[in-house]
Amino acid sequence: MTDVLSRWEVKNDKWTAPAPGSRRHFVEAVDDGWQLWTRGPGVKFYWFSRSIHELEAIVAKNDSHWLEFDAAKAKAPVSITAELAGLKATAHSERGSFDVRLWSADGERCVGYYFGGLNNATSGFVLGELTVQGTRHLDEGPRGRGLGAGLIELAERVCGLRAVPHGFMGTDGTTSNDAWKSWQSRALRQAVPGMEGRTDIDARAAMLPEMKARRALKFNVDDYDRGLLLARELGLGLVTVSFGSRTTGFFPVFNDVSYAFPLRADESVVSGAGLDDLDSAIASNLVLGASDKRLEDAVIGSIPAHRIEAEIASRSTSDFYRPLTIDPIALEIVKNREARRTRAIAAAAVGQLGLSPRT
Length: 359
Hints:
By secondary structure, the chain is an alpha+beta fold. It has helices at residues 52-74, 121-127, 147-159, 177-189, 199-206, 208-219, 224-234, 278-288, 308-316, 328-352, and strands spanning 9-11, 14-18, 24-30, 33-39, 43-49, 78-84, 87-94, 97-103, 110-118, 131-138, 162-163, 237-242, 257-263, 299-303.
């Protein structure tokens, strides 16, 4: 146990400590490093680091974010009335959400809006500050007069926080090309978080694809599609886990497999969470999926390695299924895990023979 984690409680091979509010931090050793996640409820934040001391600093920043987040949600409601290019605009914020509206000249009709709320903890860590984001729209008539920027400015005033685009630096959602151009234009006129050329922010943002892949491996169930693709890439067969037939309403059923894991020669399995034992991997997936099924009811099947490609082809060419894909970063993480495991087994075998690795 490290000095850093000596202050944390140990539960089920994980270290845990309270976070602000009703949230809780968890730390687990994985892949020659450490992964941190915060629940409250659900996974609200995830990060991986090779250094436990760096992770301790991230925990401190994460705690600061939650304190500011909770304070922002607890603020008294704020309302503002302003004028934008001769039109009335109203803005209101309450419990972390904001609603900004632009009204027609007669004040009877909403001709533009910008509404949204507080951003998530991931973006707070990457950007180094709590921000807001929202959905913006202007009718045809008011466009081209800078009113979209005015709506953002009113949102920032009423919230007391700066705004950023959707799907930017860890925020949720995606931004259209037209909206992105608008934000880039805004960044030329004034500072926008994450668009100021700060190397520390850019460095954290560059790690987001890896964090997304690791988070998915840890917290997404080991479904049939992922299992097939991993088995093909690793040259392994597949063990399947079913719990009987499923009712799916309007959608066709191609199989009743709930979970699937590539199967190694030693009968251990490859799972996203890094669990080698089949029962442990199944139990973990039952928890992830909040399933009411029981481990003892699992029906185990298998697909040999030489049949994997054909099974993938049959699912990829279906009228209902799109071609199967896997995140290349997640695939690389799994391949690296397998390589480390192979080296560790070889080193242990050498050690049992009383030989040095050089012998």
